[in-house]
Design a protein that fits this description.
320 residues, 39% helix, alpha+beta, seven-stranded antiparallel β-sheet
Length: 320
């Protein structure tokens, strides 16, 4: 009987070796396409070019679909349509839009309004100001602020509906949508059997399993001035290095304080490491508004989150 046990063990051991040797090698592939107002870069490990090509196409199509839902730039996006259909009455929305709005409202509550997706009317004024290279009119900002406030946005989870309190409201998901899209891209890749991938949408990065034979993906943490080896995690960085307005000797960030309506002049860079892109993206924006001390206090509420803050220049005072 002992010999039979040894024989069975030997056969099982040989079968394991055979299966292990039968696993085909994985190769790194990379593709880039323009989506969501930026270039989206995807790196993945696949058995061959055909599988990689199919995975890229399906994933970029998914990102494009999400852009059609979440964009505030596209007039016919689902997000922009509810600004008309959900005034003073509930409007049913897609699972994707409801999910992003739900997480956004949770961040708004946790941060006391430092994160607020209803700040769209004010954000649009600052976009125009950057194009015209001059500060927006204070009276116009005050008028826009009167249409903002996260408590004017109401979600009904059982029915998946959204309701807005008044006309003239405009939602802006620029501080959270790309992180969510990166998460969804990884899910799409996983359904196609791609277990090791990285998705980068500008300053928002999400990755799944580590590359073969490595501990993780090497990802630059800009606010830390260093590199981290990460897997099944996300990184988002916010700052004013690319989008800003210089006026009256000051630099105004593209990030707006939802409470004051003024673009940030604090000149800090924030990098967030989190389990999911939607959280990393939202927190990076929120901490930029709160500042380092209050931002780190908020981050403690979220398990698995690391925060890095670096000053990029002397802070300027607001012209308002």
């Amino acid at each position: 009987m002992e010999q039979r046990r040894r024989a069975r063990f030997a056969v099982a051991f040989l079968l394991c070796l055979s299966v292990g040797r039968a696993q085909p090698a994985l190769h790194l592939f990379e593709a880039v396409e323009p989506h969501m107002g930026t270039l989206v870069n995807i790196k993945l490990y696949a058995r061959d070019a055909d599988r990689a090509k199919a995975a890229f196409r399906a994933t970029f199509d998914r990102i494009s679909q999400l852009d059609g839902i979440l964009s505030d730039y596209k007039p016919d996006s689902e997000l922009n349509r509810i600004a008309l259909s959900a005034v003073a009455k509930p409007a049913k929305v897609s699972d994707e839009l409801f999910r992003v709005l739900e997480v956004s409202q949770e961040l708004s509550e946790a941060s006391g309004g430092a994160f607020d997706v209803t700040v769209g009317p004010v954000v649009r004024l600052w976009r125009q100001a950057r194009k015209e290279h001059q500060l927006p009119d204070r009276d116009a900002l005050d008028a826009a602020l009167s249409h903002c406030g996260y408590r004017k946005l109401h979600l009904n989870r059982p029915d998946h509906t959204v309701q807005l309190d008044q006309d003239g409201m405009q939602l802006d998901l620029g501080g959270i949508a790309k992180g969510y899209a990166a998460d969804e891209a990884l899910i799409a890749l996983g359904k196609l059997g791609i277990e090791s991938a990285l998705v980068a949408a500008s300053g928002d990065i999400a990755c799944s399993n580590a590359p073969p034979g490595r501990k993780g993906w090497s990802i630059e943490i800009e606010a830390k001035n260093g590199v981290a080896e990460l897997s099944n995690a996300a990184v988002s960085t916010s700052g004013d290095s690319e989008q800003y307005l210089e006026a009256s000797g000051k630099r105004y960030s593209h990030i707006v304080d939802p409470i004051t309506g003024i673009a940030l002049t604090s000149r800090i860079m924030v990098s967030i490491i989190a389990p999911r892109g939607i959280l990393a993206d939202g927190l990076a924006t929120t901490v930029s508004v709160l500042g380092e001390i209050r931002g780190k206090q908020l981050a403690k509420k979220y398990p698995g989150v690391s925060i890095f803050v670096r000053s990029t220049a002397s802070a300027g005072l607001s012209g308002y």
